[in-house]
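Below is a complete specimen:
___
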Amino acid sequence: TGIPSGFNDLDKYTAGFHNSEFIVLAARPGMGKTAFALNIIEHLAVRSEPPVPVAFFSLEMSKEHVVQRLLCMHAQVGIHKVRTGNITQEDLSRLYTASGNLSESPIFIDDTPAISILELRAKARRLKSREDVKLIIIDYLQLITSNRRMENRQQEISFISRSLKDLAKELDIPVIAVSQLSRAAAREKRPPKLSDLRESGAIEQDADIVIFLHKPETETEQNIFQVIIGKNRNGPVGITQLYFQEDYTRFVELERQYEGT
């Protein structure tokens, strides 16, 4: 089996993330793509025994914000409470413990904005050789630049997508890229499908696994999300569900939500 995502139902489909796999995580804006990626990081690098070293290329969010999100997620203290300073003594002690756990965790964050694919690959190679990272997550694909003269944006995205697939094969570790959907798809309410991947059929072709996050309008319980495995080169496709704990930007499995953990 591969590296577990931390979500058992998802892992039943994927058997974890395997070496040299290129995985795409896509959703409409505001559907928790970054939160989902950070959940995977927290599970692997903080909760797992032994911890799994992870590299996170955050092109949109600053390192400070990433750490704050991870801290609140791990401590289970509302991010709004932390930002407003409206925290109790108990919150403080949980944050203190979480901060200790995080500081010892093998999480390597790079927040270079508009990083080029060449620089990203060079940094990834260094992280692999120096820190032996077992997984790379990029948030998000469309913010990477190619440093090449291309005829159009579609060619550029194809080049970046292919380069990330090559990186996964070269380093022989899984690479997860967060991705936007096309503008047209972003305006619709229906579940996303492979053809909605933004600006390129190449992403769909290059990816070994494509995971979509989707919040159905019909859900009476507002925070239930569908995790749609839209492509799985070496296994079945299907749909599973997760509950989103908005305060902590944490996804949890439904049975755990009802157990109150």
